[in-house]
Amino acid sequence: MKKILTRIEEELVPAFEKAGYDAAYAKAAVSSRPDLCEFQCNGAMAAAKTYKKAPILIARDVVENLGENSIFAEAEAVNPGFINLKLAGGFLADYLNAMQADENLSAEKSAAPRKIILDYGGANVAKPLHVGHLRSAIIGESLKRMGRFMGHEVIGDVHLGDWGLQMGLIITELKKRSPELAYFQPDYTGEYPREAPFTIGDLEEIYPAASKRAKEDEQYREEALEATRRLQQGERGCRALWQKILEISVADLKKNYGRLNVTFDLWKGESDAQPYIPDMVRRMKDEGFAHEDQGALVVDVKEEGDTREIPPCIILKSDGAALYATTDLATIVERMQRYQPDEIFYLTDKRQEMHFIQVFRCARKTGLVNRDTKLTFCGFGTMNGKDGKPFKTREGGVMRLENLIGEIEEEMYRKIMDNHEIDPQEARETARIIGLSAIKYGDLSNQASKDYVFDIDRFTSFEGNTGPYILYTMVRIKSILHKYGEAREIKGGILPAANESEKALMLELSRFNATAEDACEEMAPHKICSYIYNLANEFNRFYHETRILTEEDPARRESWIRLLVLTLRVLEVCIHLLGFEAPERM
Ligand code: ARG
Q1: Cα(70)–Cα(72) distance, rounded to whole angstroms?
Q2: In this predicted model, what pLDDT tens digit does every residue of 297-314 receive, in sequence order?
Q3: Which residues, 6 or more positions from 541, have their beta carbon under 8 angstroms from its beta carbon?
Q4: Atom of ligand 1 at shortest distance to CA of 356?
Q5: Which of 167, 348, 353, 380 is the best mutation target for the ligand 1 pocket, counting ligand atoms within 8 Å of the beta carbon and taking the most?
Q6: Ligand 1: which residue has its CA nearest to atom 3?
Q7: 384 pairs with which residues across the strands?
């Protein structure tokens, strides 16, 4: 369906032409003065220079030539040369009725659907998920949904960190603690035990301990590096133990991501790239791209015109071990072979930008991707505490994701129980749903690249620009619909607005298609947030000024019910794109 602005311009174009002005000036925009009009055209201001004529005279000419038409209730030329427009109530109502009849609420799919691999989440095996991983999961899940909404084929891959030094550290620490395990016996040839010799709790304690020790003890660090190398070279015991670490860790990660409503199509990791490494390295050497530099194997990636130093991409360390860049490059090889994507999109903390510049340049230079394969890096900002520093626990430690979610849910639960009588079990479930909206909306309502302050008090508030406020509005609509009785058949469509607040709500609804398409194409969830915040505000204003259920005229009453149903549908689609849902009651 055509966008509202397009429809308006379709009326303006012939009016400009009939008045003798170039149609290129017939541009419409949402009004910057909603107190005066709904839309405006500034074309006469722009045309004034070309035609050497006062803009107000041009604006008057155009308005005169708009003549009789069914889409404007008002068209007025005002000083110094704006054309102020108000839509006809009937036109707007028709627009919403068409939107309502459309399965996709009149948002259009992309004309050129693409296959996109979305690399997000990026959790590291055996290290607890911390708030740094929260943003990648939240933003990535939303981008995945937005891409799919536009009709793209999006494949989400968690790309676990399961291959680097942290694995060697854990293996080394386990060996110190239980040297008797079969995994550490060099001449052991039997089957390894099915049961892992540790729990997730053990692993979470082991990694920080090992990491700390490696910093203090050079000998220990050497051992960990050696273990990492043996793992990467495929030593049987190391591999079997690693497999156990992976199993235990992934089960726990799935649980945690599940709590966030985050799912992945692929649970691949850096380790899956290993089989592609030797061949890739050989080719880079043979074709003269890679050369030795202080023992390491590197590919130069600086380019003419660089305004800052772009260091070479290190492919192998001097001891032959693979690095972060190595697995990322080999993963590109794998992804190209298996999926032939049009685009690979990476989502991490923006501090990894240089890494991706190097990897992308190296992949292009060495021909790992086709010329038209898009490689995109989206770097997000830091989640800070109220002190403006990266978010920490009250004690100053690294905040674990589980604890953060727990804290928010507890706060939500307290609020719900304070508000009214409700069965504690239902309150728990509702607290979970609203808590998630608080976290996700709090994050997504900021432009991803910016740092933001994670403010639990503000995010969990039922008022203001928050997830709970949006859900509160939706529950309010649900409750009216419930009272009205969903079973009752609603006849007829939405009628032209009866008052100003109703019209404002209708105008906001009519912007859904343009806003959603724009936000999804630009991968900008914050635009969805600001849209639904406005929509919720307009709905609540309408609600406070209108006695919906006691309205005596049945046609009017039913029209309002339809309007409520449409508002709810729009909000539902939007919060789905953001990755959360609404409860029935709260
Ligand atoms: N595991 C990494 C980290 O915790 C993020 C991985 C991002 N994806 C990638 N292909 N490098 O920082």
Answers
A1: 6
A2: 999 999 999 999 999 999
A3: 501, 504, 505
A4: 11
A5: 348
A6: 122
A7: 390, 453
pLDDT tens sequence across 208-244: 999 999 999 999 999 999 999 899 889 999 999 999 9
Distances (CA, A) of 127 to 160, 222, 265, 324: 11, 21, 22, 17
Token digits for 161?
């960190």
The CA 297 to ligand 1 mean position distance, Å, reads 22
- For residue 331, which atom of ligand 1 is closest to its CA? 10
Cα–ligand 1 centroid distance for 496 (angstroms): 52
* % residues pLDDT > 70 (the chain): 99
Beta-bridged to residue 314, according to DSSP, are 298
Domain range 4-87, CATH architecture: 2-Layer Sandwich (3.30)
pTM of the model: 0.94
- pLDDT score of 427 more than 70: yes
Q: Which residue has the CA at smallest separation from atom 8 of ligand 1?
A: 122
Q: Residue 174: which of 164, 184, 160, 188 has the closest Cα?
A: 184
Check if the beta carbon of residue 108 is closer than 8 Å to that of residue 320.
no
How many C-beta neighbours within 10 Å does residue 78 have? 16
User: Which of 159, 264, 350 to mutate to test ligand 1, by most ligand atoms within 8 A of the CB atom?
Assistant: 159
Does the pLDDT at position 391 exceed 90?
no
For ligand 1, the distance from its centroid to the CA atom of residue 168, given in whole angstroms, is 18
Domain range summary for the chain, segments of one domain joined by +? 4-87, 165-259, 269-376
What is the C-alpha to C-alpha distance for residues 437 and 256, in angstroms, rounded to an integer?
16
Tokens of 212: 């700390």
Distance 160 CA to ligand 1 centre (A): 7
Q: What is the pLDDT of residue 164?
A: 85
What pLDDT, in 10s, does the model give residues 28-67? 999 999 899 999 999 999 999 999 999 999 999 999 999 8
Nearest to 271 by CA among 430, 373, 163: 163
- 316 CA distance to ligand 1 middle (Å): 18
Choose the weakest-confidence range: 126-130, 284-288, 577-581. Answer: 126-130
Residues with a CB atom less than 6 Å from ligand 1: 119, 122, 124, 159, 161, 328, 346, 348
Predicted pLDDT of residue 418 = 87
Distance from the alpha carbon of residue 327 to the mean position of ligand 1, in angstroms = 10
Nearest CA, atom 6, ligand 1: 122
> Which residue from 106, 107, 97, 88 is spatially nearest to 565, judged by alpha carbons?
97
